[in-house]
Design a protein that fits this description.
This protein has a single domain, classed as Jelly Rolls, CATH 2.60.120. The protein contains no helices and twelve strands. The model has no long low-confidence stretch (mean pLDDT 94). Helices cover 0% and strands 50% of the residues. It has 113 residues and is an all-beta fold.
């Protein structure tokens, strides 16, 4: 069994080019075919528009945020679960006045923006 505890301090700001604003990321688990990350977006920070070659599951754990696709934009709060299909262009992040934290569950593959 592998174990990781979510909800802890996420440490330093991520420098990943996918993010705009102050975003904090912590890898909870990386099994190659399954990657689980905890991501915190400060108010107004977000990802750039991007796609994945894999399904992505977002589980909102704190705050209030937005998940948007070309067709839809949803406000999300703790307890919400969002599935992003492979190839679906999207972004996600904190609302302008609220930070948001989520756990992302990702399959193997690539991200492009």
């Amino acid at each position: 069994m592998d174990y990781a505890a979510a909800g802890q301090d996420l440490g330093e700001r991520s420098s990943h080019l996918l993010f705009e604003g102050n975003v904090f990321l912590r890898a909870l688990m990386d099994r190659g075919n399954l990657r689980v990350n905890e991501v915190e977006f400060t108010a107004g920070s977000r990802t750039k528009w991007h796609t994945h070659t894999f399904e992505q599951l977002l589980i909102i754990t704190q705050g209030a945020g937005i998940v948007a696709t070309n067709e839809d934009e949803r406000e999300v709060v703790p307890g919400d679960v969002v599935m992003i299909a492979p190839g679906e262009r999207h972004w996600h992040g904190g609302k302008p006045d609220s930070a948001m934290r989520h756990i992302s569950v990702n399959g193997p593959g690539e991200t492009a923006w």
